[in-house]
Amino acid sequence: MIYYFYAPSGHGKSALKTAMLEPYLRNDFVVNIDKKGLLEFLKYSPYDRLKMAYERIDYINEAYGTNFSKPIHVVQSNETIYTTDKGKFIQNYDLPGDKIGLYDEYYETYCPPPGSIIAWDETQKEASGRDSSSMDSRVSSLLQLHRKWGLDILCFSQRSTILDLNIRDNCKIVEIESMHHNCDKYGFIKSTTWKLKVFDKLKDLERYLATDAKTYKRTEFTYIGNVYEHFDSDEGEEYFVYLAKIRGLNFRIRTVNLTLDDFIKERPYTPPDNYRKVTKAEKRRLEKTKKEEHKEDVA
Questions:
Q1: How far apart are CA 289 and CA 89, in angstroms?
Q2: Between β-strands 88-91 and 217-224, what pairing exists: parallel, antiparallel or unpaired?
Q3: Integer CA distances (angstroms), 261 to 217, 242, 244, 265, 274, in order
Q4: Is the Cβ–Cβ distance between 216 and 206 less than 8 Å?
Q5: How far apart, in whole angstroms, are the C-alpha atoms of residue 285 and residue 293?
Q6: Are the C-beta atoms of residues 186 and 213 closer than 8 Å to each other?
Q7: Kind and range of the H or E element at 14?
Q8: Closest among 73, 25, 31, 82 to 52, alpha carbons compared
Q9: Residue 125's Cα: distance from chain center in Å?
Q10: For residue 16, what are the CA distances in angstroms to 118, 177, 195?
Q11: What is the pTM of this model?
């Protein structure tokens, strides 16, 4: 099944994702289930889910004459999740958002093992609803056929209506209402609880947003321990480090008492000509050129 979790930045999306999936890194025999049991992907323990993945791979190898290896867990994510089990450090399998999809002759995609849970953070980057035609068929086909491979896909975004209809029309939508930490007397986090609103269908969310109708079901999810020990909330600073390596850190002091002409030159009202978004037509031309170059290389 596909699940679409949304909440503004800082409301605990990454923490909730980590809390839900960390036990699957350890292949625990028990999993934290939301209070009302509304999130079906949590109903199988991590151990049972991995066992089902192994059975599916055994069948595929025998039926199709393949020799696929078996994963150590079922967690695929485009952000880092980690844990320690019996002294062993374990991380998720890396599945960048732009590598999600079925086979495409002209674009590299990654195939997760059957039975995997895919955590797709900031889904709108690859599947924005602002331009439905921008979703490639390799992605929309995966969304239609993911159950054939036993996948659950967890999408995370900051807004309720930003994702492509291929996702919103075929998922459970979950609003992260709040996140609360339970701390000991020294201020250390002992557990964290998220309050969630679960919408079974897109039309239920739309009625809620339009009229504040109670078209959802409430539930809570609690993680025992400090969830922040299992992911880096500063992940992404690497983009700024890369920019700084190329351009340096900016210590430019704003100049005062400029002449009118100098002020306009330093602070133009409109961006320069070479600072603009690439148009859809230009994107299509670029993709077509890449495909043609690929064909020539293959030939």
A1: 44
A2: unpaired
A3: 60, 34, 30, 6, 21
A4: no
A5: 12
A6: no
A7: helix 13-25
A8: 73
A9: 10
A10: 14, 12, 10
A11: 0.83
CB atoms near residue 232 (< 10 Å) = 14
Contact 92, 82 (CB under 8 A): yes
- Cα distance between residue 147 and residue 149, in whole Å: 5
- pLDDT tens digit string along 177-205? 999 999 998 889 999 999 999 998 888 88
8 Å CB contact between 119 and 77: yes
Q: What is the pLDDT of residues 90-149, one digit of tens each?
A: 999 999 989 999 998 888 999 999 999 999 998 888 877 665 556 788 888 888 889 999
Ranges assigned E (strand) in the chain = 2-6, 75-77, 82-85, 88-91, 93-94, 117-121, 152-157, 171-183, 189-199, 217-224
